[in-house]
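Notebook entry, cofactor series.
This is the third protein in the set we're modelling with a bound small molecule. For this one the ligand is pyridoxal-5'-phosphate. I'm keeping the input format identical across the series so the outputs can be compared line by line later. Sequence and SMILES below, as received.
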Amino acid sequence: MNKSIVSHKVRDMQPSGIRVFFDLVLGMKDVISLGVGEPDFVTPWHIRESAIYSIEEGYTSYTSNKGLVKLRAYIANFLKKKYGLDYDADEEILITVGVSEGLDLAMRAIFDPGDEILICMPSYVSYGPVAALAGGSPKFISLAQKDGFKLTPEILNRNIGPRTKAILFNYPCNPTGVSYTKKELGALNKILEKHGIWIISDEVYDELTYDFDHTPFSTLAGAKERTVYLNGFSKVYAMTGWRVGFACGPKDVIAAMTKIHQYTIMCVPITSQMAACEALVGPRKPIEEMKREYHRRRDFVVDRLNEIGLPCHKPQGAFYAFPSIKKTGMSSGDFATRLLKEKKVALVPGTAFGPEGEGYVRISYATSFSLLKEAFDRIEDFLKKKHLQTKSRG
Ligand SMILES: Cc1ncc(COP(=O)(O)O)c(C=O)c1O
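Returned structure with ligand:
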């Protein structure tokens, strides 16, 4: 008998719904993709140049496991200046391979078997599988459009149980674009504090918040001692391919995460760390320009969606819109597949982010303004055609 060597835990894991869908896109010509979750901008030149220069100067070695001392100091200064946060560069900050590694390390460092972690759905695709691989028991909290896809104190209270050890919180959120005001976060924090629940806070889109200032969870009263704050350079600085992120948290948790990181990763590549240094201390103008452009696109996308009859709450951050396609009578999968085949526009079925995503699609506006315009004309055409078909049948 041909017995698979692959462990049960991995065999049972579903492949990412985004990947499955985008395998369809491969090989198709003239497709406008509103599917990818990464900036359409190239990393600003001054950052690329500093990396090239560091190679010319011979910076090609390992760094400290925790990451370059200089980079950790810059992060500490940046967080202090921007958010008033105090993290010790030596003991409370770890440089990771993107937020992705930070998520994995944080969960592996804190879970014992049976520990439950709350995950708000729809969510970024990796949370559930990574939590399960780390030995935790993910408990999914369904959020609905009627609540603006927001976690409210009532919903949170209802979902806390005796085994709840942590919550994985992401804002601005991929895929809904939802974010939270300081007041909203404060109300959630009070409940989490009462139950002694830890927060793994994925704030990778922090600076891409459009309607109010971003509040890091660890700035809330009493929250810093129970929060692992994750952030990185991928989105805000258009540096997805460099793979640099950072984790900040209490000493013992960062030390535990560092232990795993030192055996599995050693350190983030030095060239990428050099580039990240420049991102933090170099000119802010290119970063501000990208943010302004996302904001302009956000307004365009929301207006266009409402104009063509796909209702959408206003995303407050990141670069995603999550409109309802329920009125079309199609499932998310059918809508996305037909739109791709008939109009060559690729977007992601909401179900890629959990069953709560049925009836929705994710549109990424990390795409040039002119392509966005063209894509929306095609979607409008598609909807008109679909409407005519429904009429002629009925
Ligand atoms: C919410 C969220 N967290 C983490 C990541 C991964 O980020 P990184 O490139 O820093 O690993 C992504 C990427 O799409 C994301 O959307």
